[in-house]
Structures are given as C-alpha cells and as structure tokens.
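A quick aside before the break. I want you to see a complete sequence-to-structure record at least once, exactly as it would be stored in a machine-readable document. Don't worry about memorizing anything.
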Amino acid sequence: MKLLNMKLENFQGIKHLELNFNGLNKSIHGDNATGKTTIANAQAWLLTGKSSDNRKNYTPKTENAHGLEHSVECTYSTENGIIILKKVLKEKYTKKRGSTTAEFSGHVVEYYKDGVPVKEKEFNDYLIATFRNLENIQLLSNIFYFAEVMKWDKRRQLLIDMCGDYSDDYIIASNPDLIDLKNILRKDGTADQYHTVDDFMKMTKERMKKTNSEMQSIPARIDEATRAIPNISNLSKEDLEQKLHGNNSRIDLLIKEKITLDSSDDEQKKKDELIRDIQTQIKEARIDHQNEFSNKAGAVQNKINEISSQVNDIQMKISNVKRRIRNAENDLNYMTNRRNQLLDEYKEVQAKEWDTLKEICPTCGRVLPADRVDELKAKFNLDKSKKLEEINKSGQAVSKTAIQEQQSLIDELNKEKDALGADFILKKQKLSELEQSKPKMEPFEGTETYKVLQDKLNNANSMSVSRINAERIANIDKEIHALEDSNQNIQEDISKFSTTDYQNRRIDELKDAQKKLSASYEKMESEIYLCEQFIKAKVNMITENINEKFENVSFKLFDVQINGGLKECCEVMVPTPGGAMVPYSTAANKAATFNAGLEIVDVFQKYLGIEIPIFIDNAESVTELKQIDSQVIRLVVDKNYKELTMMED
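That is the input. The structure line, written in tokens, reads:
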C-alpha cells in the first residue's frame, strides 16, 4: 500500500492542506509548530483511531473550534487498485423537547470508502481484510510500536510465530545427551502421553521440596527413637522370666500355708478380713504415691524431650546453613575469578588493532587494492566487535550486581547462622535447668498416709489371736508383698525388651526411608538437570533462528538467573557504533532506536506481505536512516521553512 494523496480539513489546527505523495518517499520540512506531527497523526487516526504515538484519547478536533467538520482523506494505491479512505469528526447537537435551540450532546464519526458513506464496522472490516487485524496497522506503520508499546510476551510470541518454534521431540532428537528425557516426561500409566518440560519441572521441584523436608525431619526422629530405648545392657530376659516364674510359685505356696494357718472361727475371719483390707489400702496408697511421682517426673521429662528435639533441629539447621554458606562462597569465588578473567579477555581483544601487513599480498608482495583492504578491515572490525559482544554476554551472569547480590546472600546466611547459634545456647541452658529440676521420689514409708495406715494395721494385728499363727501369717503377708513388689519390677524390666525391639525396628524403618528419599531426591535432581539442558538447547535454537531474520537487530529471549535457571523475556538488542549489542530500552541512542524500529517494521511487512506508509517524526535527529522497501515519509524540523514544504528523498 502506497500513499498517493492526503487531504486535511480543520484537522488539529490545520484549516486546509493537501499533499501529493505519489507513492514516493518524501521529506516534509517545517519549523516547530508548523504541523508536521499532525500529518503523522492524520494517517494514524484514520486507520487506528489513535495518534501516531498511540494515545487512545486523541482527537483531531481543533481546539476551541465549534460547528466544524474535522476530516482526513487518504488515497492509497494497493495491489487491488486505488482506494480512498476518509473519516470525519462532527459535533452533535440535539434539540430537547420543549426547547427552541439545539444543545451540544457529543461527537459523531462518519466513515467513507471511495467517497461512499459506510458504517464503522464495514470500514473496519476492510482494514481487517487488508491488514489481518487492526493491531498490525500500528505494528507495520509505527517504528516504535513493537519495542516500546507491545508487551514483551506478545513480542516474543510474534517472533516465534514468524520464525517457527521447535517441538520437544525435535530438540530431544537433535541432542544425544537428552535421549533419556523422553521416557522421563512420559505420564505415569500411559504409553504415548507426555508432560511438557515446563510442567514436569514445576511438578518435580515441588516433589523435591517435599522430599527434602521429609529427609530433614528423619535425623531428629531417629534421635528421638534412640533416646526412647531403655538401657538393658545388664539385663537378661530369660533370667527375668525365670525369676518371675519362681516368685509366682513361691506366692502360691505361701497362700496355701496361710490358708492352713487361718482360724475357722468368725472372729478370726473378721480380723483377717480387716487386716487384708488395711493391707490393700496400703498397697493402693503406695501405687498412688508412685503414680503421683511418675506424673510429675513425666511432665518434666516430656519437656526435656521436647527441648532436646528442638536442640537437634537447631543443630541440623546450623549444619544446613553452614553447607549453604560454603556453596555460596564457592559460587562467589567462581563469579569473581570469572569476572576478572572476562575483563582481562575484554581488554586483550579491545587492544587488538589492524595489522597493516595484511594490506600486502603474501604471494606477490604488492599492496592490495583499496576495496580489498577496506573489506579485510571491515571483517577485522566485525570479528572484534562480535568477540567483545560475546564477552559482554558472558559477563552478565558475573556482573558487579550479581557478585554484590551473592555477597549479600552470604551475609544473610551468616546472620541466620548466628541467630541459630544464639537460639542453640538458650535451648541448652533451658535443658540443663530442666534436668536439675527433676523431682526426687520420697519413700512411701515416710509419708503421713503410710504412718496412719500402718498404725491401723498394727492395731488390727494386736487383736487377741494365737500369737504363733499371727506372727507367721504376718511374715507370710510380708513375704508375699515383697514378692509382688519384685514381680512388678521384673515386669517393668521385661517390658524394656519389647520397647527396645520396637524402637530398633522404628530406627531401621527410618534409615531405610532416608536412603529411599535420598535416592529419589538424587534422581529428581538428575531429571531437573536434563530439563535445564533441554531448555538451554531450545533457547539457542529459537534465538539463532529468530536473529537470522534480522540484519542488525537481535533479540534476547531468555535471562540467565543467578541459580543457573532461565526466565523468559523479549529484549530488543541494537548495535552500538563499536559493534556491541545493547538493550534497546536502556542503552540505545536515538539513531539506533529509529533504525532498529525501521528494520523490525521492514521484516514484519515482508513476513506478513503487507506494506503501509511509515511516517517518521523528528527525523532530523538521525543523519542516516536505514533504507527499506516501504514508503517512508520523513518529518524534519527545519527553522528555514516557516511553512510545511515537501521534498522528494
């Protein structure tokens, strides 16, 4: 599409203007405020409804003007012939019921195609049919739209759509080191369904996080089980069971003897029942006394166990932080050494100068023709700039900022280690205090309860009965009581063997789980590594394919993170006079941005097979614009022209 003619009426301060472009490249010169930008705005408003710099609320209405029609009409030559497009902005006046005068009620826009009034939809349908979508008009006519207006993810997708993406299968097949990745990505329970690499990495990293958490908890659980194992080094289960059996047999014999000694008269039975009742009370009171002590001691022991577990957790965390500090310091040393190496390499390359001996033919000894010398010098300068660019790219991962961030990470880890150390000391002090506060058991015989019950028992025993039988029965009861106490202690010792077996099985299970978790974690690490290698291979293939489409401009599609990972982006890179590539958004000068924008528009116009005239405002700020096939109209600030003056380029 070539612009042949433009007519403006009451358009943004221009009362009437007609320009004949005849489909050619033109330069329009004029002093400030003569209307150059208005001409660029005119085509932009006609085709997009916005200004040339993409302002949404733009209006072509002349300020403080009322009752006028504000219009732009452009005549274009296309592959289907001549097309005339026109838009008119009018004020709308409405007469309310009962009023004799019409009042302003807004604006209306009228659309014309080849002089025929059409609806807005029909007008836009023609533009869509011509440009495929309305955004393409801005993309192909505004040299700043792609790099400055369009969002990075949309820019990135547009480049990939133009140059083609690569399937996962193709990338894996192209790299022998990735041959195992195909099986890794296969979904469980399927034969031909696969996760994407991104989805698989997200799932695996989440699994690694959970696995690592479980691994970190196991040592504390093993330590807890170990501390729960009672000391049985001086015990024999077989001997204890034999002793228990002997005690029970002796108790049976004593009970039979006691029955024989008992008197058959009622008085003796009542006395015996009273004595047995008091003995039962004593026994129960003894058990209550022991239980009360056990409860008090148990509460303190539980707190000791809790603090001990916290101490072990802190020790593990301190070990983990120390390991992270070592790794971070190793990374910092590598980054520092790598940066120094790259700086030396940059200086060495920068210092290289053209060797004049290369201007002499090695065969005949004559000076080479000037054009051949210029060609060799250009190649030398290009090779040098490319090498410097490569060094700059390599240096991004080890920049001063990256090194400072790494040092900050180490400082934060050291603070974390110090805080953990202080917490560890406090916990150990608390543990020592708890150990010292353990209650000591008072002998039951020293309690007031025992003394009262014992007095009752003595009184009962002093009742008049046969002295010999009474004394023997008392001795029998005493022996039975001692044997029962012994049995209780034996049962407690025997139960220690069951506790030991259970805790040892638990420890073995935890150690086995630890090995399995460690193996699983290492496997997931290797899978993540393969995925990262895949992404790097894909990055290189896509970036190279896209950058081959452009002569000077290139694109950075991924950022390398400090941890080695990749983050998607879409940064336009433009060359400096020295040949190094710098970001469009932060380091490019005005000439570089103009020519980068022209090159991008040129490539996309050829890709889409659509041409549209391009207006370049403030063109005087660039001494040499890139030549492209499309119609380019330069708008030049020139104080020598007080009115707009058009010239052929």
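Two observations worth writing down. The first strand starts at residue 2 and ends at 11. The chain has a mean pLDDT of 89. We'll return to this after the break.
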